[in-house]
Amino acid sequence: MTRRLQNRGRDHYSGILLAHLMFLYMLCYRNCELVDPEGLTNQLRILKSVNVDGVMIDCWWGIVEAHAPQTYNWSGYRRLFQIVRDLGLKLQVVMSFHECGGNVGDDVNIPLPQWVREIGDSNPDIYFTDREGRRNTECLTWGIDKERVLRGRTAVEVYFDYMRNFRVEFDDFFVSGVIAEIEVGMGPCGELRYPSYPVKHGWKYPGIGEFQCYDKYLMKRLKKAAEIRGHTFWGRAPYNSGSYNSAPHETGFFRDGGDYDSYYGRFFLNWYSQILVDHGDRVLALANLAFEGTCIAAKLSGIYWWYKTASHAAELTSGFYNPAHRDGYALIAAMLKKHGVALNFTCVELRTLNQHEGFPEAMADPEGLVWQTPIFGQV
C-alpha cells in the first residue's frame, strides 16, 4: 500500500511516496529485537531501487512498554531505523496503542502490554464493552482518558509518556529529518473510531455493529450527561439497536423513522460522538506537545456501508453522527484542523460500483462518503 504525505503548512517533507510494510510487524516482536536484519535490508534495498522514498512503521505499545510501566525498550526499533537511514529512506512512524490481531488482514498477534492486561484482569472496565458485556481488549476505553486506573496514571498520560520517551530516544532521527511524520493511534486499528465491528465478537460485513459504551466509566459519563439535560432516564444506551450483524431496517433504533431521530436518540448520539471528538482532541494536543515541529497525522476510518440509508447505522455505532440530515464530520474536521494534523482516510481508493457487485444489500457508497466529508478541504 502506498500513500503520500500531505504538507500542512510546516517545513517538512511534501509528496513523499511511502510503502507501508506489513511484514515489519514481526521484526521487533521478541523482546524488541530485530529478527532478520539482513533480510530486511535486502527488501528495503528493493524498495529504494523502485524510487520509494520512505517506509511506514508501527511502534507497538505492547512491545516497547511490555512488562512494566514507564520501562521502555526501543532497541529493535533503533536498529531498524538505522538501517532505513543508512539506505537514504525516510520514516513515517505510527504510535500504535492498540493490539494487532483479530481483525481482517491481521496475521500477527501483538497484545497490549502485559502490565495493562494484568490491570484488565481485575478491572475489565478499562476496555470497551458491548451491551452483552463482552470486553474488547483491542484498545483502552476512552472512559479512562482521565481516570487514574493505570498504576496511578490516566490513559492519556500513559500515551503522552510513551510519545515523549520516543521523541527523546530518537532525537537524532528527528533532527536529521529521517522521521518525516508521526501518525498517532487513537482507537482500534489505530483509527479514531469505536471498535463497533470486531471480528472476534462475530461481526461480518455488512453488519451495522454495536454501540461500545457499556464500561462503567463511559456509563457514568452518560448518566451524568442525562442528569445535566434534566432527563435521568436517558442515562442508558439504546435497547433496540440490534446486534453486530443486524441490518438497519431490522431494528427499532436504526430503521427509517426509528428512535435514532427521536429526542432521546439525538441526545445519545450527540453524546456518543462527542466522546470520540474529545478523545481525539486530548491525544492530539499531547502529541503536538511531544513532537513539536514534526508533522502529525491521524487515521480516520471510512464507514461506507449503509451510507445510502437514512440512519447511516454503521457510522453511528462507530461514533460518526452522520445520518442523512446531518453533517457528522464537521466537528471532527474542526478538531483535526485545530491541531494541524494530516489525515489518513481509509476508504479514499474504494469505488461504489465495486461494492455493489459483492454486497448489493449493504447500500454502500464509499465515493459518496468521501464526497460528503469536508475534511479533505479543511484539514
Write structural notes for this entry:
By secondary structure, the chain is an alpha/beta fold. The protein has one domain (2-123, 139-204, 273-378): Alpha-Beta Barrel (TIM Barrel), CATH 3.20.20. The chain is 35% helix and 12% strand. It has 13 helices and 9 strands. The chain has helices at 37-49, 61-64, 75-86, 114-122, 155-169, 171-175, 216-229, 263-290, 313-318, 330-339, 352-358, 366-372, 375-378; strands at 2-4, 17-20, 54-60, 90-96, 127-129, 135-140, 179-184, 295-300, 342-345. It has a 7-stranded mixed beta sheet. Strands 5-6 form a two-stranded antiparallel sheet. β5 and β6 form a beta hairpin. α5 runs parallel beside α8 (263-290) and α8 (263-290) packs parallel to α10. The radius of gyration is 21 Å and the shape is globular. Belongs to the glycosyl hydrolase 14 family. InterPro entries: GH, Glyco_hydro_14, Glyco_hydro_14_CS.
User: Would you state the CATH class?
Assistant: Alpha Beta
Q: Residue-averaged pLDDT, rounded?
A: 90
Fourth-tier CATH superfamily name? Glycosidases
What coarse outline follows from CA principal-axis ratios?
A: globular
Q: Numbering strands along the chain, what is their spatial order in the largest sheet?
A: 1-2-3-4-7-8-9
Radius of gyration: 21 Å
Structural class call reads alpha/beta
**What would you say the CATH architecture is?**
Alpha-Beta Barrel
Number of helices: 13
Q: How would you briefly describe this protein structure?
A:
Helix 5 (155-169) packs parallel to helix 8 and helix 8 packs parallel to helix 10. This protein has helices spanning 37-49, 61-64, 75-86, 114-122, 155-169, 171-175, 216-229, 263-290, 313-318, 330-339, 352-358, 366-372, 375-378; strands at residues 2-4, 17-20, 54-60, 90-96, 127-129, 135-140, 179-184, 295-300, 342-345.
